[in-house]
Please model this.
Amino acid sequence: MTVGSKNADQIRKFKLSEPQETYSCPIFRVEAREATSLDGALTRPMYTIRCAQWVNVIPVTADGHVVLIEQHRFGTDTITLETPGGAVDPDERDLTLAALRELEEETGLTSQRLLALPGFAPNPAIQGNRITYFLAFDCQPLAVPRDHHDPFEVIRIRMVPVEEALVMARSGQIQHALAALALLVAEPYLKGRTRA
Model:
């Protein structure tokens, strides 16, 4: 059933049963809920993925480079080019500090100037979490690198001029949709930060 734009105020949420966990792993849980059609005639199970909130960082150096990372992603079984980021830990209450932690763990860089950008729902059809973007200015190497040992996270750093990184995001060279969106959301703040 489609509701025309003139009747947009008539859109209602479906009635949902209490969630039942059907699968759980360290990264996410799958929940099932029975949805009832608006007329009450039909029900159907709806599955959602529950996972932590995410943060993503667009690191920029003083000389006008965006710091991107390459790593093997199991979902596509490819090496992807992306911006640093990850899940907010359960004990973290400050998204800015979570973003700084991810930046330091994945790149060995830090920043004294983080700017929070808008957050988005990565896939509201099946996920309930949000991703929040941060722009990190004037990134510099940590005096003492963070001890981050994850044997399944092998990362290579790529320094890319700002304009080139934006072209890569717009052209699909950066295949990770959330990373491409991060760069495009940050674009107004990146303009003028070209290589010296």
Notes: The two ends are 56 Å apart (CA to CA). The mean pLDDT is 93. The domain at 53-190 is CATH 3.90.79.10 (Nucleoside Triphosphate Pyrophosphohydrolase). The chain has two domains: 13-50, 53-190.
